[in-house]
Specification:
Blueprint: H1 3-15, H2 24-36, H3 42-45, E1 62-65, E2 82-85, H4 87-93, H5 95-108
Antiparallel strand pairs: 1-2
The chain binds zinc ion (2 copies).
The site of one zinc ion has 8 residues, from helix 3 and helix 4.
Length: about 110
């Protein structure tokens, strides 16, 4: 698929209320890329978000879209837009989601 075809396909999924992350195209793409990246968190392996920490191995749990899917559906299945990350690093990539979780925690703790 070309980028514009991919964008169109993703938008069609959204319109029909389907979950992109459940499509065969994504699941197989994700498996292939994760395997290439050795299922390893790239951020931790490269010394953390600022690159200044000790390099460490952590298992990646998420294949993150560097340019977020919502804003760049054309890059939905583009390997160079992918980053394998652990849960903690993924939270740092999405402060908007993380902030919400923290607020909820504060309310109930
Ligand atoms: Zn990490
Ligand atoms: Zn992400």
């Amino acid at each position: 698929m070309t980028e514009s075809e991919t964008a169109e396909w993703v938008r069609r999924l959204w319109k029909s209320g389907k979950n992109f992350y459940k499509t065969y195209a994504w699941v197989s793409f994700r498996a292939r890329v994760m395997q290439k990246k050795k299922n390893r968190c790239e951020v931790c392996w490269n010394g953390g978000i600022d690159g200044k920490q000790v390099r460490k191995y952590r298992r990646a749990t998420t294949l993150h879209h560097k340019k977020h899917l919502k804003d760049h559906p054309e890059l939905a299945l583009t390997e160079s837009n992918m980053e394998a990350v652990c849960e903690d690093c993924h939270k740092l990539r999405h402060p908007e989601i993380y902030a919400k979780e923290t607020r909820q925690k504060e309310r109930w703790d």
